[in-house]
Structures are given as structure tokens and as C-alpha cells.
Structures
1.
Amino acid sequence: MKGILKLAYKLLVNDKAKFTALLIGITFAVFLMMFITSMFMGVLNHASATVVNVGAPVWVMDPSVQAITSSIGMPNYVLDAVRSIPGVKFAVPLYSGTALVKLHDGTYQAASVLGLDDTSLYGRPVLTAGKIENIYADNGFIVVDDAEYRKLESPRIGTTFELNDHRAVIVGVAKVTISGLFGLPTLYTTYYRAIQYIPNPRFTISYVLVHPKSSSDIPAIKRQVAALGYMALTKDEFIRKNAAFFVFQTGAGTNILIMTLISFIVGLSISGQTFYTFILENLERFGALKAIGTRNRQLVTMILFQASFTALTGYGLGVGLCTLLVYLAKLRLASYAAMITYPSLLVSFVMVVIIAAISSYFGVRRVLQIEPFDIFRG
């Protein structure tokens, strides 16, 4: 068997033109599939930036909320009711909204504003400059130093600007785990300052952040919240809900699926046609092997080895090329969202296996139909 595989390898790589064409086709297909799915996974990851950065184990919200950005105000009694539920260690309000910031050059920039509970500041970011207690100072705001930081003219501690016709002062600079998706810089302040500075409807609590006494208390908390007419989701459930919204409600999932299928078809058509041509050009060699006693099973093994070797090599090259381009893009574009994940690698690998299987299927059929007599007669 070792000699058969060695012979199959030499037959494949000695035809440099066909081998190169096969590698290019599969590499290009893997690159496209990886690049598209990586972009999509990056978008889904950044879409849940607030959920990840705040980090609350349980989020209470209006049942109509579809994504973190579409918060619906809740009355104050919901906060009091949640705090009284057995198993709740503490619960605090969170404000989430958008405001217009007037910069020093006279232009306006929209910004996301998160209002933290005045007493605990639960969900506060990690500061790289300034002190967290300064958020209680008059007009105090903390700015997040992320990909959108420059849109606020890279403010430092002491920088002042107008926010919805109110004076705002930067008292701290923070870093977060994930930057936002929608190109808006992020500001943190206290809950009551946020609802004073930003026009709001009657109800101002966007979310209630709950810290349970233990994870075993979460199911009971969710039932009690549902009895109030509201919805409680764990952090992971809320992230999945955000992802489902972008996949099924925005059309992004359908577009990504179409582009992935197009990449698959491109790779299949190029590699399949090239591999089948390679088999046709080597029919005499396969016929000669059959004439000297090589079994059909061994010929099939040769073809499967050639298809698998080419597919896996192209897969590695495609993943490497995609990784390199994503790395270079992130060096130049701070807001670039693409990220290579295990699901992206798995999807691309499965597609490559299917390409190799289909390509080898037609090659195997053709080789098994060979009659040594026909080869030598020709």
C-alpha cells in the first residue's frame, strides 16, 4: 500500500500544471469561504459588545427586545420586583442610549451612552487613565479607547464637549473586551446623569442587571420575571439572541449563505474539472497498473489519496492566506471586525471534504471503467 500511495503522489505532483491549477482552485475557494464566514462571525461578536463588556450574568428586559441596541424602557417597579425575588443577590438598572456630541471643530458625532447604577457602578469598564470615582464629578463621563475613539478627536482627561446641549467632561479613559459594531464611540456615566442628559420616554430603565446568589437560582429567577410580564436571559442566551437577530432578521445570514455557496461552487467547478482532466490524461497509466494486477480497490485508494492530498494542501494554504490578510487588515484598520473561529474553520473543512469527494467520485468511476485491453490496443 505504501508503494501505491507513493506512486499516486508522484503521478500527481509530476504534472505540475494540473497540480498547480488544483491547488489554486481549492485555495481560492477556501480563502473565500473563510474570509466571508470570518467577517460574519466578527460582526456577530461585535454586535454583542455591550453584553460582553458589562458582563452581567442575567439580563432582564422587555419581551419585545430583539437585540441589545433595541432596548425598550421598563418602569421602576420592575427593578424593585426583581430585587425582591428569592435568589437575587443584587439587581441594578442600566441605561443604554445614543446622544449627539458636539466636537471642538463644530461638527457632531453620535455616541453610545451607557448609564451605570449610581451606587455600585456595576458593569463599569477597566480604566487605563483616571479614577472611577471621578465619574461622580459634575458632568463626568468615561470614554472608551477603542476603534471609534478617534471619532471624538481622541479626548483625554479634562477634555470638555457638548452632549445634547449639556456640558460633558472626560474624567477617565477605559478599555473594553470588544468594541461596538455600528461605528459609534462609547461613553459611560452614571444612570441618573444619563437620563437627565438624553431625551427619553416615560420609562428609562433599559435593562436590569441581575447577579444571582448561585447559578442554580437562575431558572427560578427567570420564572418569576416571566410572571411579571418581562423576560430574563443569561449572558450567553442574550448573545445568542443578538446573533439570531442579525442572522434571521437583517438578511445578513442569507447573504453570507449565498456568498459561501458561490465560493463552494467556484472551488468545486475549478478543482472538479481539473481533477477529472488529470484522470483522463493518466488513463493509460491507470490501465497499465490494472493490466499488471493492481486491484480496483488499490486504484480507488490512489485516486482518493490524490484528491485528499490536494484538498488538504489547498485547505491549509487557504486558511493561511485568510489569516494573513485578516491580520494585516487589523493592523491597518482598527475597526475591522473579522475573526477566525473554529466554526469558520469547520465549515470550510467540510466544504473542502465535499469538493474532494465529488471530484474523486467522477475520477473513480472513469478509472473503474478502464479495460486494459482497450489501453494496449490503442
2.
Amino acid sequence: MDIDLQQLIAEIIENKSSHGVLVISQNYHIRYVNNSFRDRLNLSVGDNLLDYYGGIIKDINGRYTSLLIETMDTGKEYRNEVWGLKCLYDGQLHWFTVNTYINYNLVMGGRLAVASYVQIDRLKAYETKLQSQHVSIFQSFAKAIGMRDYYTMSHVIQVAQRMSELAVELDMSPEEVAMAYFVGLIHDVGKIGIPEKILNKSDSLTADEYETMKNHAKMGADIVREMQDFDEIADIILYHHERYDGTGYPAGLKGEEIPHYSRMLAICDAYDAMTSFRCYRQPVSTEQAIAEICKCAGSQFDPQMVTAFCNKIKYA
């Protein structure tokens, strides 16, 4: 996949300390590492990534020691793959979701392999709070979305993380925090049914295209409702574009008629949409996004949740 390398790096840096980016050349030398990841792994530009793995490309079972090295060697790109890395600051193994890409950049030396990392230690621990069957289903949905649309894949991962953070801020139980994370991961699954010419359009949608895009909430709910015991999650997905004042879609629900997790999703979804790069517009700053969300408290969003969300973002 030919990606905009500078845009990818900018996105990861904007998302701060729990994220990392590595870029290596064909001889596995590091061409770029952001500051947070450099300190975590004790890696610098010019180092050979193989040294981090003791000079070993594959283990005794023939498995690559690094997803990034495998991408460079084989061209295979990974999406939302869970991977463990030992970090310098505490000597412990920490867990990340990893996306890898092949990129061509003549300024940086031709063929490059790029990896982005999102730390998920706390979220991985939450997996034990849900049935393993459910976890694998949710992760499969996220990967399926990513096969069609890189933005949506990145978006649902960010929303899932924001959902878990908001749940903690709202003093929800560990089980509820886990559910918040996985609902965030699956909330846009209905976009699988949206035509690619609309899903990947490079400029703003027309009125008709927007009406088609709105169908993704119902499509997602219909997909999830086919699974046993998933009716609650289906309703959360169906109503995540409802507005607190009753002017949202698809049912015009108002206030606490809207499911609790759907009200959370509305905030986290909007925040990530505003602060993410899109090909047809630049992102707004964190401060601008918070101001807009606060402005919409009581109309678009649950005001109590807005207060908790903005407090979390301000002091993160």
C-alpha cells in the first residue's frame, strides 16, 4: 500500500505517548523513530533493528521475530495485529496493535517498511473480562473494515481507545470498560456494506451519498444482531448517531432514551473525526475539538459525558 509517509508520522505524533512509529530501510536500519518510541525501546536513527532482536530474523520455528522485518522481506502488510515488545523503561513486555506498510520514498532511500504501534496493555487485560469468542469476532470485524478502508480502520481503533478512557473517567466497572472498548472497535462495521466509491471518496459527500452513508448504522446493527446474545450491542451500534436533543438518526431518540454506550460513542466518534487527517480537509487541534464538543453539550451530546470526556482529554 502506497501511503503518505509524512501524513502517517504526523498522525501518530499527534496521538502522543501511547503511540509509536518506526521506519526501516532494506538493510533493516532505522530511518525514522518518534521520540516516545525511541525512549521506550532504546532505538535511534541509524541503529539496525535486528540488534533489538539479538540479530535473529526468525525464531527456531521459522517465525519472524518482527512484523516490520517480515514486511520488509516479504511485502506482507499487517493490520491491527497484536504484538508484544520489551520496553527499556521497565524491562517488561508490553502489548501493541501494529500496522505495517511498504512505502517508496526516494528522499529517505527508496523502499521502506513502516510500522505504527498503539499500546494496548490495559485493553488487552480487559479481554479476559469478555468471552474469548467475542473478542475474536470483534477483532475480525476491525480487520475486515481495514481491508476496505484504511481511515475507518484507524478511526475505530482510536475510538475504541477513547471509549475505554471515557469509561474509566465515568467510574465504570472493568467489565463495562472492556465493553466500551470493543463497542468502539465494532461500531462502524456497517461500512462494510457501503459502496467503495462513497466510502473512499476524496472530497465531501453529496446529499444523496450522505443518505447512503447514514445506512451504515442500521447495516452494522443487522450484521451484529445475527449473532447470539448480541442484541444489546446491535442496539448500541444502531443508535450511535442519535443526538441528545432528539434530532439524530435513525430513530430520533432523545436524552437517556439513547443507550448509554451509544451516547459515549457519539462523543468519541466526533472527536476522532475532527482531529484526524482526511484527504479533503485538515484536522482541527485538540483545543478546537474540545471547544466544539463542549459547545454541543446538551444538544448533540450528553452533557455529563462531555464534562468527563473533556476533563480526560485536557489532563491526558
3.
Amino acid sequence: METGGRFIEILIEIWNKELFSIDESVFKVRTLIILFVSLFLLTFLTSRLRRLLINRVFPRYNLEKGVAVSIATITRYIIVTVGFIVILQASGIDLSALGILLGALGIGIGFGLQNITNNFISGIIILFERPIKVGDRVEVGGITGNVTNISARSTTLLTNDNISVVVPNSDFINSTVINWSLLDRNVRFNFPVGVSYKEDPERVKALLLEVAHDNPGVLRVPKPDVLIDGFGDSSIDLNLRVWTSRFSDRPRVLRSQLYYAIFRKFRENGVEIPFPQRDMHLRSGFEKIGAGDGDEAGNGPE
């Protein structure tokens, strides 16, 4: 019994043990424990609230997923900021006494945390201005993929090969970003096609438009069209232009489908797809070599 009482006394002593003080604020073990537990609960609960807003609340108002994620994330940041201040005050910590720590933190940010701070601020700018949002098809730094998550420090892109690429938020602010679906997911693709000079361009145009209309991934409005890009060395160069929303993130799949269909359509209708040709001219006869040339070369009679 005495051992148990002594153990409780030791715990109470540790609980009330003073670690350090800043001005009039005294930091005890219990202060730090309460602070860490409160911050953990704050982070955990706000994370659950963010998912609740995205998955349950905002869908009732028919908000786009990207907009819902941005609003939910900003809401979480605000609650975390206010909750952090309230937790510090409730723990008996004088906020004015943290000036020294904040000053030291500012020096640390100035020297060692520049990139982290830059990415964090860039993440806030992305959430407010929304140059990109979850679900967008973007291209940055040679990487193309769908935006799956925007966090405080980085943005995750999912490529067509199912590879997740984590890109720092500052790259979306400081670099040129191509957003294929900023306004909508309708994208126009161009597919060059070459045919022989003996073919009628109007007939080939009609066949190409048939191929485009038969593909369910090609939009009817805006309508597909065919342009003549020029006259090549061996072919008439045409350009099939189609609009799609289904394949905005898979252009190579649509290209393959259309080219397969074009090849079949051309073969069925006897349309010739040319190959590079070159005309060769042979000169008859040989140039005569003067008698003096042989002597100069040392090949004449001795």
C-alpha cells in the first residue's frame, strides 16, 4: 500500500515539475502534456471535419469537388489557427511571453525553412485563387496528371501510369502551368493524316468525319472538322480536329482509337496512304579523262 502511495506521489511530482519559464509563464510537465494532447485532438478532429464537409455536406449543394476541397481545407486552417490560440491561452501560457520563441522561429524560417514557408504560402494562394483544384488535368515541369490532393506543402498528381507525383506548391506559383480543365473538361486534339496526291481531298474529308462521328468519345458539339495543312513532298497533309471531354486526360488512347479506325476506313475505301518517294536520275556515259591527266598522276608510259 505504501509502495502504491509512493508511486502516486512520484507521478504527482513529475506532473507538477517545472521545466522552464519565460518571463512570468512557467512551463510544467502537465502544461506540455495537455498542450500536445490538445493539439493532437485539434488536428485529428479538424481532419475528420474536412472529410465530412467534402464527402457529406458539400455534395448536397452540388458543389464541384475541387471547390469543395478548397473550402473545406481553408475552413480547417482557420479552425486550427483559432484553436491553437485558444489552447495556448487555456493552458495558462501568456502569448506575449512567446515573443522570444517567435523571434527565434522567425530566424529559423529565414535561414533553414525558406522552402517550407514558400510552399505553405503558395498552398494558401492556390486554395484561395484556385488556379488548380482537385480533379483538374494539369501539366507542370514536364509532368502531366490529375490533381488528387492539395495539402499545405505540396500537391499530388496522378499520372496515366497510376504513379503519384508529389509536386511542391511553389512550382504551381513560380512556373508555367497548363491546366487542361480550368474552365471545363472540353479539349480539342489535332490528328495529322497524309493521303496520296491521287486522292480527292473532299472524299477523304468525308471519310475522316465519319470516323470521328462513329467514336463515342468525340463530342458532337463543337463539331469535328478537317483542314488541309499543306502539300508535302509525298502527300496531301490533312488535320483532323476533334473535341472531347472523356479523353481529356487520355489523349493517346483517343489518338490510337481514331488512327485504327482511319486505317480500316481507308483500306475499305481504297484510299492510299503514301510513303516517302524520291526520284533518281541516272546519267548515261562517262566523262573522258584527258591524256595529260594520266601523265600528271604518274600513270603514263615510262
4.
Amino acid sequence: MARITASVFSSHVPAIGAALDLGKTHEDYWQPVFKGYEFVKQWEKAQRPDVVFLVYNDHATAFSLDFIPTFAIGTAAEFTPADEGWGPRPVPQVYGHPELAAHIAQSVIQQDFDLTIVNKMDVDHGLTVPLSLMFGQPEAWPCKIIPFAVNVVQYPVPSGQRCLNLGKAIRKAIESFDEDLNVQIWGTGGMSHQLQGPRAGLINKVFDNAFLDRLIADPEGQAAVPHIDYVREAGSEGIELVMWLIARGAMADLAGGKPPKPLHRFYHVPASNTAVGHLVLEEQK
């Protein structure tokens, strides 16, 4: 049967993608950011996942303000990197796993979660930047990717509790898929940041690191935090962190198993106008 072997968490700052694409990774400003991802790049080469279930938010690319699904699963065979106004990123085509994606949709919907099934969409920096951070700049991505887009742009947005519970349902779905697959689930977005208004540029190191602490040791407690606390403490875009709870909810300890092992934790300020957070949790048998 398919199995989840790890969860990986990361910011998906668009400027990180630009720094990579323009060869700026060794500049003094960017070098500390990319150094924080050296561990995961080597670790991923050893892990060789078959599929990454990648939780991210679309930035008005695949979904305009005319149509905003709360949860959308990409079930296509491939997804094209989007043109976000300055041309598509020079990254490989994203190939999906339609069979597993369709199975997850069937299982999760039968567990009373409403998903939007998307058979065609372009994927923006929310998905491609994490892929570049974890896998570098290969000619082709080393695994299949299932995009899972969450609305954290237009209110109302899903609660942390809803996201954690959804992660539990996704785990159940993956474990019932009748194929031997090494699956990782990634939660992306955040950390504290605000892009507009009087608080533009807000970064809250205390909140960010407390979030990482609770994500590891007390995910149920973190799931109970209301969305207004994210906005107040972490800025208007800090609400993206609820997407990390989907990946955390898919870990074995929330289904009666052992707690995951923290393998790597990284936090850095600044990268563009935000903080960068990164965490790797490995399942324990």
C-alpha cells in the first residue's frame, strides 16, 4: 500500500525563485537562505519519493477572484508552470499522478470534505519555489507531484482545525491506495508577512518560532488557534500557515502512531519582505 514517509514544510517566497533563476544564490543577501536548504536537498536525494502531495495557495493565477475553491486537488497528468506577469519560471513541467489524485479525491470526499477537482491548471510560484528549494534545478523533477491548492487569499478561509482534520483524511486516503508508493506531504506558505497597508513588512519572529514549536509538539493545540490571531500576530498573509497544518495532520501520531522525528529546522529573516521557515518531519515505524 502507499505510505506517507515524511512531511516537509517551507515558505514559498516568489523572490526566492527569482534569486534561483537569476543565479543570485551566492550573493551575501541570499546565501544564508539557500544554506538552510542544503540538508533537505541531500536528504531528498536519499529518500527518493515517488509522489509529493504539495499543499500551496494559488496567487490569482489558476483561480481568479471570479472562482475561488476552498480546497482544490489537481488530478491532471501534467501541469504547466504559470506566467505570473514576467514569463514562466525556467523550471521543468510538473507531472501529476492522476490515479492517486483521483483516489484521494474519492476517499476524502467520502469522508465529508468538499474538494474541487481540477483537471487543468497552471501552477505558480507557490508550488514551483518549494520544488526548487528541495530538488534544486534538475532537467526534470524527480517524482510525481499532486498539487493541492487552498484558499488563503479571499475570506472566508478554512480554519486551522479544518486543515488539520483534512490532513488526517488525506492520510487515510493515501494509505488505502493499492500501490507501493513512497509519498511525502508538503505544507507551504507563510511565515509571518504582510504585503500591504500600514503594517507592510511585518515580521514576528516570536510568533513564527512558537508556531514551529507547536507544529512539532502540539499540532492539536495549534489547530485551535483562530484565524484572527494569525492576522493580528503574523500579518494579513500569515494565515498561509494554516496550510502547514494539513501536512502535519497527515502524520502518524494523529492517527494513533508514533510522533514524527524532527530532522531539520531552519528559520531566517529576511528574504524579500518576509521570514523564511523550513521544517522536515520523518515518520517513525
